[in-house]
Amino acid sequence: MLPRMTWRRLCLVLALPVLIALSLLASFAIRTSSQALAADWRTARNDSSHQAPDPAKTEEAVLQVYAARAFSWRGTFGVHTWFALKPHGGAHYSRLEVIGWGVRHGRPAVRASRYTPDAYWFGSRPKLLLEMRGPLADVLIGDVIQAAENYPYPATYRIWPGPNSNTFTAYVARQVPGLGLELPATAIGKDFLTNGAFLADAPSGTGKQFSLYGLAGLTLAAEEGLEVNILGLTVGIDLSPLALKLPGIGRLGVGM
Q1: Nearest-angstrom CA–CA distance, 66 and 240
Q2: Where does the chain show beta strands of DSSP type E?
């Protein structure tokens, strides 16, 4: 028999992989049992989730950031994120995001469109991560557009570990710290730092993060709390409000 101390060490070594595996299994079970899970992208729900203010009735500027579960099996692991922008007096929203479809055939990865700002993403209802209105939002919209134009990977997309849609959103957030944007733990690719950097501000701008090409890293920030990145998956703890951050599941605790 193994000595007691050896068993303890073995349990400690296995604890994190087991936690990650159980979290992903739980996420898969929840995902496959969901009525919103679409089997076919052509028939998946893509109408408005009615979270964006009607531009015909809203004069002030509106800046929103959304996240929705990725399509098919990818949704077990992570989300897709995007910006919805309406300047003061604007008659419509501009939707700003990175999309991988068509990139290999020459289409740009960064897409700006008038697509429904708060649409279901292939059957998944988006979660509103951030909303700002008024004069400050109007200023930050210009900053977001400028940051998007400077994104280092305008024609490159790699689902894992990045650069992908969440890499883009995180990059813009770092360039526009006034957003104070905290991305969910399920935003795989957010820890892929641009231009080969190993150290950067956390997306929220309230701390720092170290990352080794999005495959391993550590984030410590007032908004994100403590996050450990393992092969693109996030495990961590948030103290404000108190919650665990688990792969596939995301936040588990207060303010889910």
Answers
A1: 20
A2: 62-69, 79-86, 94-98, 110-113, 127-133, 199-201, 207-211, 216-221, 225-230, 233-239, 242-246, 250-253
Nearest to 232 by CA among 172, 166, 176, 168: 166
Strand 110-113 relative to strand 94-98, pairing: antiparallel
**Burial category of 125 from C-beta neighbours within 10 Å (exposed 0-12, middle 13-18, buried 19 and up):** middle
User: Secondary structure of 68-102 in the HEC alphabet?
Assistant: EECCHHHHHCCEEEEEEEECCCCCCCEEEEECCCC
Contact call for residues 108 and 52 (beta carbons, < 8 A):
no
Q: How many CB atoms lie within 10 A of CB 223?
A: 17
| Integer angstrom CA distances of residue 129 from 39, 41, 102, 178 | 26, 24, 27, 15
**141: part of which helix (H) or strand (E)?**
helix 135-149
Nearest to 113 by CA among 83, 90, 88, 140: 83
pLDDT band at 2 (very low <50, low <70, confident <90, very high): very low
From the number of C-beta atoms within 10 Å of its C-beta (0-12, 13-18, 19+), residue 28 rates as middle
When computed from its CA atoms, the radius of gyration of the chain, rounded to whole angstroms, is 19
For residue 150 the two structure tokens come to 């400077």
List C-alpha distances in Å: 229 to 105, 149, 215: 32, 28, 7
pLDDT tens-place string over residues 9-64: 655 555 667 766 677 677 667 667 665 555 676 778 999 999 999 999 999 999 99
Locate the domains of the chain by residue range. 19-38+49-253
Q: Write out pLDDT tens, residues 124-146.
A: 999 999 999 999 999 999 999 99
